[in-house]
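Need tokens for this chain, all 305 residues.
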Amino acid sequence: MNKHGHLAEFLQARRSRLRPEDVGLRTYGERRRVPGLRREELAMLAGISAPYYTRLEQGQSRNASREVLDAVASALRLDDSERAHLHTLASTSSRRGPGARPRPERVPPATSALLAALDGTPALVIGRRSDVLAWNRPGHGLFAGHLDPDGPDDPGGAGGPGRRPNMARLVFLDAHTRDLYVDWTAKARAVVGNLRLTAGRYPDDPLLAALIGELTMRSREFATMWADHRVLACDVADYEMRHPLVGTVTVTQQTLQSPQGDGPSLVVATAEPGSPSAAALALLAHATAPRKADRPHHGAGTRTT
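Here are the structure tokens for all 305 residues:
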């Protein structure tokens, strides 16, 4: 992040991607030193003064009205998710202060019960930094069958990093997960887009900043995608997966967020009823079910943290 903050980075990145001809401006063949629109051109399109927009982009104006932000969003041709992200960045920028120490993320009882009820359907509980807080057996088998099933129970601490998986790390740094997705680039962009949204909501989270820094250093592809400043709300997405146990399967991954929007999310993978993919998921659920001799007397088959 540059010295002006996430808001400045986002505005600069989006302005640089707009060409004068994209917004109907004539350049008369002049040579331009930098790509994209100039600040004064963007300000003119938004109907605000160039000095005011410059202060906004440099992080010197932290009280922009909703009307001004909407005008800038329209000038930048932002979609609904990007417009909401712009408002979030402006809001967090105006009230930033010393960051509080992050509290450990836990699985709420209601989410734990829902995960248990989905025992035959692949499901994960994901924290805001993309840590896997819990999974059921089909979820572990579909997304990370090569990892220790007890990994989510070990977040680490003073004694070491722990074994808790992190989906962003897996997507960019784990060969098994990379091979799992037929269109790995689409999955990777979704992960980065979602992390961008999270970083906008929690700009002072040191653990999130450390994760982004690690991925930027260890993955050139992550660094490139992160610099693009694209945001993406990963609510529903279809992915074709090459699973080592049940073969190729197309799943719909749905992310269910708590009504408050600040707790862990539940990611559920389903397939079209009656399809070969649905049969493959049923086979996976059977293959990952506990053996009768190992089944607990109370019938629980889900691990939570």
